[in-house]
Each structure stands twice: as structure tokens, then as C-alpha cells.
Amino acid sequence: AKKMSVIVRSTKQLYRDLLRLSFYVGQQNGNQVVLGNLVRDGFRSNMAETDPKRIEALQDDAVRILQNYVILHLHQEEEARKNAGKGAPAPDDPSESRS
């Protein structure tokens, strides 16, 4: 019974984390409601799952989604920082090679 309560608690924490992420991403992309509904629907569709191994697999998938987003977000921020320092070359810049 103790293991099941740990699974339930961590599932709730994961659900909250995914909802927060969906709202954050949604605010940036203008699809906050859609992403929130996707998270809710995904959890609702598996709400009756009782097999601990299946629950763990579902949790692992959700954690992977969070990790992938964080990696993607960090990569995009790094690219934005790199590009911000470069700036566009001036139209008459002789250092720009033309074909």
C-alpha cells in the first residue's frame, strides 16, 4: 500500500509539472488551452491504470517529455544568444562574400 501511495503522489506531482509546462509553453505559442487539454486528456485516459509497471512506464514517458522540452528550450536560448551577438551584416560590408 505504501508503494502505491508513493506512485499516486509522484503521479500528481508529475501531472502538476506537466500542466505548468503546458501553460508556460502555451503562453509563448498562443495555444495554452490546447496544450493543457492534451495533458489532462492524457492523464484522464490512464487514470484507471492499476499495473505499477505500466504506471511507471507512463511516468517515464511524461518525464522524458519534460526533459526533452527543457533541452530544446535551453538549446533555443543558446542559439538566440549566439545569433544576437552576430547581427546582420551591413549591405555594403566588404567582408560579406557574395556569389
Explain what you see:
- The protein is mainly α and 99 residues long.
- It has three helices and no strands.
- The protein has helices at 2-29, 32-45, 52-86.
- Helix 1 packs antiparallel against helix 2 (32-45).
- The termini are far apart.
Helix and strand arrangement:
Blueprint (H helix, E strand, L loop, with lengths): L1 H28 L2 H14 L6 H35 L13
Helix pairs in contact: 1-2, 1-3
Summarize, please.
This protein is mainly alpha-helical and 99 residues long. Helix content is 78%, strand content 0%.
**Global geometry:** elongated
Strand count, sense and barrel status of the largest sheet are: none
Q: Give the mean pLDDT.
A: 78
Question: How much helix is in the residues?
Answer: over 70%
Strand content: under 5%
SSE class:
mainly alpha
Compressed to H and E, one letter per element, the order equals HHH
Rg, nearest Å? 21 Å
Question: Uncertain runs with pLDDT below 50, 5 residues or more?
Answer: none
How many individual helices?
3
Distance between the termini: 71 Å
What is the strand tally?
A: 0
